[in-house]
Amino acid sequence: MAVAVAAIFLLGIVWYFRREHLAGTPGSSRSESPVAVQPNPSLSAAGLPRRDAAPPIAVGKEGLGGDQVDKLIASIHWESFGGAVLAYTREQERARRERRRPNYDPQMMEVLAQNNLRMQEIAKLLGIEDLRETRFHERVWASYARGWMKALGVALTPAQDAELGGAALGFAHSRAEEAKTLQDPNRLDKLAWDAEQGLRWDETVRKLLTPDQFAEYAGPAGSDPFWGRQASRQELPLAGVEESAERVEAFWQSTLGLSENLRPLLRGAATEYVREIDRLLAGFRARYSGEAPRDEEIRLRLSLLRIQSGAEKGLAERLGLPLEQRQGLADGSGTVLDWKW
Hints:
The structure is a single chain. By secondary structure, the chain is mostly helical. It folds into 2 domains: 3-218, no CATH class; 232-340, no CATH class. Helices cover 59% and strands 5% of the residues. The protein contains 14 helices and 4 strands. The strands form 2 sheets. Strands 1-2 form a two-stranded antiparallel sheet. Strands 3-4 form a two-stranded parallel sheet. Helix 1 runs antiparallel to helix 8 and helix 11 (263-287) runs antiparallel to helix 12. The protein starts with a helix and ends with a strand. 36% of the residues are buried. The model is unreliable at 5-66 (pLDDT under 50).
């Protein structure tokens, strides 16, 4: 799971940040007001701009001149932006684990709100409809990746920085091309694809960094491919096949809103699904008696997600639902079954 890519996924809802900052509750708002630009703000220890930093300069589209996109990109203090995204993600993930509401720092939300406006403007100028894709654009990704590295305390040498720029351009190109091959993915398919792209970026970054640098880079997410991806997750302890299948059956019946009279058929599908993941996990444990390599554990979790997605896609036919009822199951549960073993 690429740490930077994962954090970017949460910014697919960047327009949440502004309203959440202003109203104090989650929401959405796409402001068209001029972008507030704060050139090279001083940074606090947390990587966020100090409140006594230089006042913002208002930059509207009509006053940019030249290449508007390049000027907007240059106007963003990427280390500050990366630091705010990192703080947001850490608090969000901590709140998820502790089963509580997130408590976001107001200054962090202010930084996100300001940069949200700039990224919206960049997306408009580049013709990007899905805001989640703005950071992956070939003109933006290198800047974001460098800022994320700095926010994590990874100091690049000039040679590493130059290599990162070329690698980011190649990654952005290939990601855009591969995205065209996705055919009607449901939410779990899209999540798996995003996470796989993140792993590919990780593998690219690993070649550029020293082992110590990569450890800093990979530290926040560890081996969790869904860290920071706004994924709905349901933790399930892996027990015996029957007990685990019963839990999956109850989960599907509840999340998919299926009729009670379908429970016997649903139990059969859940049992087959659990047996498949049990075989996968047994093989994984046989290969790695101790702690598995980070990348291999990520691949395992992605395989588990693919198996779940496939099982859910087959439910409509397995349950014998009429065509008019199958559309409701097309997107599946949209929730990752996060197995604990």
